[in-house]
Design a protein that fits this description.
Radius of gyration of chain B: 15 Å
Number of domains of chain B: 1
CATH architecture of chain B: 2-Layer Sandwich
Strand order of the largest sheet of chain A: 1-2-8-11-10-9
Order of helices and strands of chain A: EEEHEEEHEEHEEEH
Shape of chain A: globular
Bound molecules: zinc ion
Distance between the termini of chain A: 53 Å
Number of strands of chain A: 11
Strand order of the largest sheet of chain B: 3-4-5-6
Oligomer: heterotrimer
CATH architecture of the largest domain in chain A: 2-Layer Sandwich
CATH topology of the largest domain in chain A: Gyrase A, domain 2
CATH topology of chain B: Folate-binding fold
Mean pLDDT of chain B: 94
CATH superfamily of chain B: Folate-binding superfamily
Strand content of chain B: 25-35%
Number of strands of chain B: 6
Order of helices and strands of chain B: EEEHEEE
Number of domains of chain A: 2
Chain lengths: 194, 96, 997
C-alpha cells in the first residue's frame, strides 16, 4: 500500500488559490510549519538550551516576532509562542524542545495541519485587511516585526507583517480556509473595482 | 462598540473580547460545607450598579487572557483595567 | 406646476441631460441634479401623500431633512424603498415612484382619511384596534399607512466594509468642516473628512458669498486640493456619518455606485465604515425650521433656505411668485438669492415687531415687508394659490381683521435654525437650550467630540470658521501632534439677527375654520396631537414623542423636534429648557440593512467547517447537514434511497461487518502539567484521579449550575499528559472553559492547555471487522485484542505518518478512532475505503451513528439532555457519591430541587403496539389511564427504527424512571396515543459482549 498523500487546506472546493491585481496579490502558502510552545514558567524560554536551539531568545514583548535560526518566533500570549517556518525545521526544533521540556509543565505541539496560511501583499493589502479585520494596520500603528491575533470576518486570525511592501502573513484555522479565501479574494476584487 | 485595552495586547475592538460577567466573585467551598443560600448568592446574585461596574473579560480572539475591567455603566467609559487576582483600584462610585 | 428651470446658473451640467421617470412619466434633468431638484425643475410639485391622512405633499427641504418626498426607486432586485428625493443624485434612466399613494398621486382613494382627520388623533390606532389583537388590523392599516414596498427579488448588490482608525474625524464638508480639517491636517495627524454630499462646500454652494477676497468656490477648491494632497488625510464624499457610538466609534455609509446609471454600476454598492477616531469634530450645520400654521403642509410651502438652495445650486426655481414668512434675518438672505435669480417676491411677513437692518434694506429695494406679521393660512389644495397674512399682537396672537391675502405660487418660511446635534447626542452629549438662537446646542459630552460652526450654534460664518480652525488644531494637539493655529478664513454677508419664537401661529382669535398645523410632516403629527397627548397626561418629552410619533422613525425630528418642544412649552406652561429634548437615535438617515450585513451573506453567514475527506463523502452520495457548525454527512444515499433506508443499510453494515465514519470534528484538548490530573478531576463528574497512562475513561462535564454540559472520552497519554475529548460542537467551548477556570479560579494549578481539534483528522473504523481492516495498514501499534483492549489509547505511526488510536465505541461494536494529521485525512479515508472493500466496508453518517447509539442506550448530550438535566438524572448518582473531591457544578447537584425523588431520569422506552414506526421525539410520557390534559411524566428524547432488532427503540426522560422500569406508559403525540414500557436504556447487546472482541 502506498504512502498517504498530503492535501492543503484549500485543496478542495476552491478553484483558484491565488489572486493578483495591480493593487494586491493574495496566495495560499502551503505546507508552512507551525508549532506552539506553551510553558508554565516563563524562565523556561530563557533557558540557554532553548536559546541555543532557537538561535535567539523568544520575544518577551507582546505581539512581536523575532527571527531565529531557521524559524521565526512569534509571541502569542504570556508564556506562549508560535514557531513559524520551514516545516522540517519546525519539526526538528519541536522534537528537541519536547525533549528539553520533558520534565516541565509545558506543551510543545506541532500544529502545521491546524492552520491555513495566506500571504497578502502590495499597496492594497491594508485596505483588504481593513475590510475584514478591526486591527489598525497603519504604518504608525503596525510594522514589520509586529504580529497580532484578531478576527478575519468571524474567524480568529494571526496576522504578521513580514516587510514594508507591505506583505502580511495570515493564519486561520484550516477549517476556515475556504471561508477566509472567499472573504479575502472577494475583498481583493472589490478593491480593484472601486 | 467599546474599545478595550487588553493588558497584554493594548487597545482592541470589543468584538475580539467576551464579557464574563461580574468580577471578584468568590467560589464558596468546600462543597459539603456551603449553604444553599451561599451557593445561590455565588451563582445568581449580581450587582447592578449605576456607575462603576467591575467585570471580567477575556481577549477571546487575541491572547485568550482573562483580566478585570472597571467600566461606568452610565458612560461606558473604561476607568481601569487590571489583572486577575488583583484588587480593584480606588475609584469614585465603586461599591466596596 | 409652479417650479421651473432657470435659464442659467447653478451647479448643474447642462451639457449632460439625463432622462428619468416619475410615476411612469418621463422627464429630463441634468447631471448635478438631485431627484428632488429635477422634479422641481419639471414643475412637479406634488411628490407624495402623507403617512396617515394621505394629504398631498411637496418638497419642504433640499437635503436629508426632507420629510415628504419619500420615493421608491427602480424595481426587482434593484428596488430601493423609502429614499428621500433630495438625497438621490439624478442618473440617466432613473425610475421613481411615490411610496404612499394608491392608486396614484393625484387620485388617492385613501385621502378620504383626510376628511375624517378629526377622528384620527394621536394614538388613534393604539386605542381603536386593541381587541382582539393588533395583528388582525395591521395588514390593512399598513397598506393605508405604509411607506415603500420591500424588494421581492433578493439583493444582488455587494456591500463592502471598512474598519478605520484616525486621529481626527471631521464630519461635514461645509465651510466649518473644511476649515477644521485643514487645521488638523497640517499637523500631519491622520485626518478623515466626510460629507454625505457628492460635492464639497455645504451651505457655501448655494450662496453668493466671498471667502476673504475670493468667490467661495475658489476657497473650497483650494482647501479640498490641499487636503487631497496631504498623505495622512482622507476625504470621503457621498459618505454619511450616521451614528456615533462608544469610545469614538462613528459609523459611516459611503455610497459608491448609487449615483451611476444601473448599467454602469459594478463592484460594491455601499461601504460601511467603522471609524475609531481619537477626536471628532462635528461640522454638520443647522436645519431650518418651518413655521407652524394652518395648512403649512401644502405643496409649494417650503423652507426659505431650501428655496434658495434649489434656485442657486440646482437652477430650479420653486415658483414665480413667493411669499416669505420669517422670524429671523436668514429669510431675507434667501429672498435676496431668489430675487437675484428672477423670482418675484410678493411679500415678506416678519414676525418681529421692528424692521431689522436686513429688513429695512429689503423694504428699501421695493419689497413689501410686513413687520409683526405672519402667515395664518394657505389657500389652494394641491398647489398654493395665495397666502393669508395677519398682524400679530404682543402675545403672538393673530389679530382679527388685519388680514392681507397675497397671491403667490410659493410660500417660503423660516422659523429659525436648529443645529444638527444628532451625532453629538448619540455620543452621549448633553444639550442646553440657547435663548438667543432659540435652539438646542451642545453642552457637554464624555467623549472627545466638539461641534463647530452652525452645528455648535454659531451662525456667524466668520466666527464659525475661526472656531473651526482652532478646534481642528486643538484636536490634533490632543492626539499628540504639534499643530500650529492657522489663520481662519473670513466670510462676507452675515445674516441671522435676533429671532422671535412663534412655535405655533395662534389663530384662535380669527374667524372661520382653518386646517390643521403640521409639526412632523413625515409622521403626520399636528400641533393638536401634541396638545391632546399633554391633555392625556403624557407630559415628558419622551412620552409625547412615543404617543404622537413626533420625531420618530427615519426623520428623527429633523425639522420638527424644536417646533414640537416649542408647542409643548405652550401647552405645559414651562420653558423649553425645562421641557428638554429627546435622545436622538442612530441612524441619522436610513441605511440599508445590506450595508450592515456586508459580506456576511449566503455561505459566509456562520460558515460551515468542512471535513478532511469532504470530496470523498460527496462522491459517495453523502447528504450533508449542519451539525454544530460542521458540514457532515447525515447518511450516504445509494440508488435513490431515502434517509430511513440508508440509515438502516449503514447500521446493519456496521453491526455485521465494518463501517467507516469521519469523526474529525471530535474536540481534542491537550492538558499537561504536574497538576493536570487534579485539574481534570475538578473538571469532570467522574473520578479521573485514577486514570492510568494509555487508558481512556468516559466522562461527563457540568456547568456550575450542575447541568450536564458535555461528555467525552479522556485519554491519558502519559504521566501528567492528557487528551480531553469533547463532542463535536463543544470543542471551543470546553477549551474556553478550561482557560477560564485555570486563569480565574485556580491560577495556582500547574497546568497548561491547548485545543488541537483541527490538527487531527479522525477516522472511526467501526464494526466486528474493524481490526481486520486496520491490519491491512502498515502500523506501529499492536492491534491485538489483548495488547490493545477496549478503552485504551496508543500513539504511533500508520503508513509513515503520526497517528493516535483510541479504542472507544459509540456503537457498541469493536471500534477504533484513528487520528492522523489533518492534511493526510482525505488520503487516509480513501485508503481505508480501498482496503475495506474485501470486508464490504460501508461509509456511514451521523444519523446512522445516532441510530447505533440509541440501540445501545448511549446518551447524547443535547438530545437526551436539556438545560435542566443533572448528572444523577442520567445515572451518575453513584459516580458522584463515590467521589470525595469537588468538581464544577457539584454543589448544585445537592440543592433541594436536585435531590427530589421525582426528577426525570434517563430510561429506555419499548414500543408495545407492534408497529415498526418509531415513537415521535418530543412525545409525552403519560400514565396509561390518563387522558390529556394531564401532567406529563416526561418525554421521548431519541427514537429510531433498529434494523438489528427489527423494531423501534427509544430513549426518554421520565419522572423517577429508573424505579419504574417495567411499568407500562402511554406515549402521547398530538392526540395520538401509543403503548410503551419503561426499560433500561440499551436494547441491543445489553451485556456489552461485542465491545470486548
Ligand atoms: Zn490580549
Amino acid at each position: 500500500m502506498s504512502k498517504l498523500e498530503r492535501m492543503s487546506p484549500l485543496g478542495r472546493g476552491i478553484s483558484a488559490t491565488a489572486y493578483s491585481s495591480e493593487f494586491v496579490s493574495l496566495r495560499q502558502q502551503t505546507f508552512f510549519g507551525v508549532a506552539k510552545v506553551i510553558v508554565r514558567k516563563s524562565d523556561l524560554l530563557g533557558s540557554p538550551e532553548l536559546e541555543a536551539l532557537l538561535g535567539v531568545r523568544a520575544p518577551q514583548m507582546a505581539n512581536t516576532v523575532v527571527q531565529g535560526s531557521g524559524v521565526e518566533i512569534a509571541w502569542a500570549a504570556p508564556n506562549q509562542w508560535l514557531l513559524l517556518g520551514d516545516e522540517a525545521e519546525v519539526a526538528r526544533i519541536c522534537a528537541a524542545a519536547q525533549t528539553a521540556f520533558r520534565d516541565e509543565t509545558a506543551l510543545v505541539l506541532q500544529l502545521t495541519h491546524a492552520y491555513a496560511v495566506f500571504q497578502i501583499e502590495k499597496t492594497g493589502a491594508r485596505d483588504v485587511l481593513a475590510s475584514l479585520c478591526p486591527l489598525d494596520l497603519h504604518p504608525r500603528a503596525f510594522a514589520p516585526g509586529r504580529c497580532a491575533q484578531s478576527l478575519l470576518g468571524d474567524a480568529g486570525v494571526f496576522i504578521q507583517q513580514c516587510n514594508e511592501a507591505p506583505s502580511f502573513r495570515l493564519m486561520v484555522d484550516q477549517t476556515y480556509a475556504g471561508y477566509a479565501w472567499r472573504l479575502l479574494s472577494e475583498a481583493c476584487k472589490s478593491l480593484s473595482s472601486s | 462598540m467599546l474599545q478595550i485595552s487588553c493588558p497584554y495586547c493594548g487597545a482592541r475592538a470589543e468584538i475580539e473580547f467576551r464579557c464574563g460577567g461580574q468580577a471578584h466573585l468568590e467560589r464558596p467551598g468546600p462543597h459539603d460545607q456551603v449553604s444553599d443560600r451561599q451557593w445561590a448568592e455565588y451563582l445568581f446574585y449580581r450587582d447592578n450598579p449605576k456607575g462603576v461596574s467591575l467585570e471580567r473579560w477575556v481577549h477571546r480572539f487575541g491572547c485568550r487572557q482573562w483580566f478585570n475591567v472597571a467600566r461606568s455603566t452610565l458612560t461606558h467609559e473604561i476607568l481601569a483595567v487590571y489583572g486577575m487576582g488583583e484588587q480593584p483600584p480606588q475609584l469614585e462610585g465603586t461599591k466596596r | 406646476m409652479s417650479g421651473f428651470r432657470l435659464e442659467k446658473g447653478g451647479r448643474i451640467d447642462r451639457s449632460r441631460p439625463l432622462s428619468f421617470t416619475f410615476e411612469g412619466v418621463s422627464y429630463e434633468g441634468y447631471a448635478g441634479d438631485t431627484l428632488g431638484s429635477a422634479l422641481m425643475a419639471n414643475g412637479v410639485s406634488m411628490l407624495g401623500r402623507s403617512f396617515k391622512y394621505h394629504r398631498p405633499r411637496g418638497l419642504l427641504a433640499a437635503g436629508l431633512d426632507e420629510p415628504n418626498a419619500i420615493m421608491q426607486l427602480e424595481d426587482g432586485a434593484q428596488a430601493r424603498p423609502n429614499v428621500k428625493a433630495t438625497g438621490v443624485e439624478l442618473y440617466d434612466g432613473l425610475r421613481a415612484a411615490p411610496v404612499n399613494a394608491w392608486p396614484s398621486l393625484s387620485f388617492d382613494l385613501l385621502s378620504v382619511n383626510s376628511m375624517f382627520a378629526r377622528f384620527i388623533p394621536a394614538a388613534f390606532y393604539y386605542k381603536t384596534f386593541m381587541w382582539p389583537h393588533w395583528s388582525l388590523f395591521e395588514p390593512a392599516i399598513r397598506r393605508a399607512a405604509g411607506l415603500g414596498v420591500s424588494p421581492e427579488a433578493s439583493d444582488e448588490d455587494i456591500y463592502d466594509k471598512r474598519y478605520a482608525a484616525c486621529d481626527v474625524l471631521v464630519v461635514g464638508g461645509g465651510p466649518a468642516g473644511l476649515q477644521a480639517a485643514q487645521a488638523a491636517s497640517r499637523s500631519g495627524a491622520r485626518v478623515m473628512l466626510v460629507d454625505h454630499d457628492a460635492q464639497w462646500g455645504g451651505s457655501l454652494m448655494a450662496s453668493n458669498r466671498h471667502v476673504g477676497q475670493d468667490p467661495a468656490d475658489d476657497w473650497i477648491g483650494r482647501v479640498v486640493e490641499e487636503l487631497r494632497a496631504a498623505p495622512e488625510t482622507q476625504l470621503l464624499n457621498r459618505t454619511l456619518a450616521f451614528g456615533f457610538y462608544d469610545h469614538g466609534l462613528v459609523g459611516l455609509c459611503e455610497r459608491l455606485t448609487d449615483h451611476l446609471p444601473l448599467a454602469e454600476r459594478s463592484g460594491p454598492r455601499l461601504r460601511f465604515w467603522k471609524v475609531r477616531a481619537k477626536s471628532v469634530i462635528l461640522a454638520t450645520g443647522a436645519i431650518e425650521r418651518p413655521l407652524v400654521f394652518p395648512n403649512n403642509d401644502r405643496p409649494g410651502v417650503m423652507l426659505a433656505g431650501a428655496g434658495a438652495t434649489y434656485a442657486a445650486r440646482y437652477a430650479a426655481a420653486p415658483g414665480r411668485r413667493a411669499v416669505f414668512a420669517v422670524n429671523n434675518d436668514s429669510g431675507y438672505e434667501s429672498a435676496a438669492v431668489l430675487r437675484r435669480l428672477g423670482v418675484d417676491i410678493a411679500a415678506i411677513a416678519d414676525a418681529r415687531p421692528g424692521l431689522s437692518a436686513k429688513g429695512a434694506q429689503m423694504a428699501a429695494s421695493g419689497i413689501n415687508v410686513f413687520t409683526a406679521s405672519t402667515i395664518t393660512n394657505v389657500r389652494g389644495g394641491k398647489k398654493v394659490r395665495a397666502a393669508e397674512l395677519h398682524k400679530l399682537d404682543d402675545d403672538g396672537q393673530a389679530v382679527k381683521g388685519s388680514a392681507a391675502l397675497v397671491e403667490c405660487d410659493t410660500v417660503l418660511t423660516s422659523g429659525g435654525w436648529s443645529p444638527v446635534v444628532h451625532l453629538y447626542s448619540q455620543a452621549g452629549g448633553k444639550l442646553r437650550f440657547d435663548e438667543q438662537i432659540q435652539a438646542f446646542v451642545p453642552r457637554e459630552c464624555g467623549q472627545h467630540v466638539l461641534c463647530v460652526g452652525a452645528a455648535g450654534g454659531e451662525f456667524s460664518l466668520t466666527q464659525g470658521l475661526a472656531d473651526a480652525a482652532r478646534a481642528g488644531a486643538a484636536a490634533a494637539r490632543d492626539c499628540g501632534f504639534d499643530a500650529a493655529d492657522i489663520e481662519p478664513a473670513t466670510v462676507d454677508g452675515e445674516a441671522f439677527g435676533n429671532i422671535r419664537p412663534i412655535w405655533q401661529v395662534d389663530v384662535s382669535g380669527l374667524a372661520g375654520e382653518r386646517g390643521k398645523a403640521w409639526l412632523d410632516f413625515q409622521n403626520d403629527v399636528t400641533s393638536d396631537d401634541v396638545a391632546l397627548a399633554i391633555r392625556e397626561n403624557f407630559k415628558s418629552v419622551e412620552h409625547v414623542k412615543r404617543y404622537t410619533t413626533l420625531g420618530m422613525a427615519s426623520d428623527q425630528g429633523k425639522t420638527s423636534n424644536v417646533n414640537g418642544i416649542g408647542v409643548m412649552e405652550g401647552a405645559l406652561g414651562k420653558p423649553m429648557a425645562q421641557v428638554g429634548t429627546t435622545t436622538f437615535r442612530p441612524p441619522y438617515d436610513p441605511i440599508e440593512i445590506g450595508a450592515f450585513a456586508g459580506r456576511r451573506v449566503g455561505e459566509n453567514i456562520a460558515p460551515l467547517r468542512p471535513l478532511a475527506a469532504e470530496d470523498a463523502h460527496e462522491m459517495l452520495g453523502a447528504r450533508f447537514e449542519d451539525y454544530g457548525g460542521w458540514r457532515r454527512p447525515a447518511f450516504y444515499a445509494q440508488d435513490g434511497e431515502d434517509e430511513h433506508a440508508a440509515v438502516r443499510r449503514e447500521a446493519l453494515a456496521v453491526r455485521d461487518g465494518v463501517g467507516l465514519f469521519e469523526a474529525s470534528p471530535l474536540g481534542k484538548i491537550e492538558v499537561a502539567g504536574a497538576d493536570a490530573r487534579e485539574f481534570l478531576n475538578r473538571f469532570y463528574v467522574n473520578n479521573m484521579a485514577t486514570l492510568k497512562p494509555q487508558r481512556c475513561r468516559y466522562g461527563v462535564m457540568l456547568d456550575e449550575n450542575g447541568v450536564v454540559l458535555d461528555d467525552g472520552v479522556l485519554a491519558c497519554l502519559g504521566p501528567n499528559r492528557y487528551l480531553a475529548g469533547t463532542t463535536s460542537g463543544h470543542a471551543a467551548l470546553i477549551a474556553d472553559n478550561m482557560d477560564e477556570w485555570l486563569q480565574c479560579e485556580w491560577p495556582d494549578l500547574d497546568v497548561v492547555v491547548q485545543e488541537v481539534t483541527t490538527n487531527w483528522a479522525v477516522m472511526n473504523v467501526n464494526g466486528p471487522r474493524a481490526r481486520d481492516l486496520l491490519r491491512k495498514f502498515d502500523c506501529s501499534i499492536d492491534l491485538a485484542a489483548e495488547a490493545f483492549p477496549h478503552m485504551h489509547v496508543r500513539e504511533g505511526e500508520i503508513e509513515g505518518v503520526a497517528c493516535r488510536i483510541q479504542r472507544v465505541s459509540f456503537s457498541g461494536e469493536l471500534s477504533y478512532e484513528v487520528a492522523v494529521p489533518w492534511g493526510f485525512g482525505a488520503s487516509f479515508w480513501a485508503a481505508l475505503m480501498d482496503a475495506g472493500r474485501e470486508f464490504g466496508v460501508s461509509p456511514f453518517g451521523v444519523e446512522t451513528l445516532m441510530a447505533l447509539r440509541v440501540e445501545k442506550g448511549f446518551l447524547h448530550v443535547g438530545a437526551d439532555t436539556d438545560g435542566m438535566t443533572l448528572p444523577q438524572d442520567i445515572g451518575f448518582g453513584g459516580v458522584i457519591s463515590r467521589k470525595a473531591a469537588d468538581f464544577i457544578g457539584r454543589r448544585s447537584t445537592m440543592r433541594p430541587d436536585s435531590l427530589r425523588d421525582d426528577r426525570r431520569q434517563f430510561v429506555g422506552l419499548e414500543c408495545l403496539d407492534g408497529s415498526a414506526k418509531p415513537l415521535t421525539v418530543g412525545a409525552h410520557v403519560l400514565l396509561p389511564e390518563s387522558a390529556p390534559p394531564a401532567l406529563t411524566q416526561g418525554w421521548v428524547t431519541s427514537s429510531v427504527y433498529s434494523a438489528a432488532l427489527g423494531k423501534p427503540v427509544a430513549l426518554g426522560m421520565v419522572a423517577n424512571g429508573r424505579e419504574r422500569i417495567g411499568e407500562e406508559v402511554k406515549i402521547w403525540d398530538r392526540g395520538v396515543s401509543r403503548r410503551a414500557r419503561i426499560s433500561a436504556p440499551g436494547a441491543y447487546d445489553p451485556e456489552g459482549k461485542r465491545l470486548h472482541v
